[in-house]
Hints:
Layout: H1 2-21, E1 28-31, E2 39-49, E3 54-63, E4 78-82, E5 89-93, E6 102-107, E7 109-110, E8 119-131, E9 137-139, E10 142-146, E11 153-167, E12 170-183, H2 185-213, H3 222-239, H4 250-312
Helix pairs in contact: 1-2, 2-3, 2-4, 3-4
Amino acid sequence: MIGGVLAIALLYVVVIVLYAAGGRIEHAEASSGGEGVPLELTLTPVDIDGAASTMSVRINPTDLGSYSSDDFSMDEAVHVLVTGTNGARTIEYGADEVVGAETVALTLDGFIEQWPFDRYTAETLIAPMRVDADGQGVPIPYVLTADGRVPGWNVVAEAVSTVSVVTEDGTITLLGVQFTITRAASTVAFGLVLLTLMVIAPVLVLTAAITVYRGRRKIEVTMLGWIGAMLFATIPLRNFFPGSPPIGSWVDYLIVLWVIAALIAGLVIFVFAWLRNGPDGVAAAQSAGDADTQGDASDADAGSDGGGAGGGE
């Protein structure tokens, strides 16, 4: 008993520690090169939706460099090309307009059906440009940083360099970030605990049903309600999985389907035991009850007679 309590306490501490330690994004930073004070852009993942295969990323100009004289607006129009979304997207920062953070949705490559061990990747190219006299976009020097924290996920960001372009600011290397995303250890542990609890339920039901069927325990019709409650509690427990894996995931074929089948099997076994008991069993139970009642009455009568005889003396 003490060992079980200690095991539960240890599991509790492990899950809490894993949750507190997880979710931090491994810092990544790269510079495009070129002359002048670069524009600094910070990418911060804010939300990951495995079912929709998207990751929301906030792009924030943290330092406008030599392209601003007041640190909050651009001296000239700058637009930032972002790839990896559902079609390339451009973020516009007009001249003399206040610069703010923008959120884009990157497309993830992965399969949520493999929950809780699903893994995703995403890659985006970030290229800030100004417009030259010919109306063409020309890359400007910039620094790209990825940082932040997404609870429930482990995100590894790696800065990558792509093509280089020669401009009047020098040679500019276009930069991108590659993300590798997995569920945090705390989320995996949480899911495994729920799956373990889900497996325990049919084990208990089958144990009780088989014991009753073999005649080792008395049939209690109220057990039908208990088994039914176990059955109907399975779906809410299934929907409580972190990350909400869709119906038809591997976990359904490996565990959930068989949990439901085992619960129904336990219900069937108990009903067979109840039917096998039949009217004879009911009559026997009633006869036993009547015999107990008569025995109690006889004992009471004997006690009364004894009391009367004692009083006569």
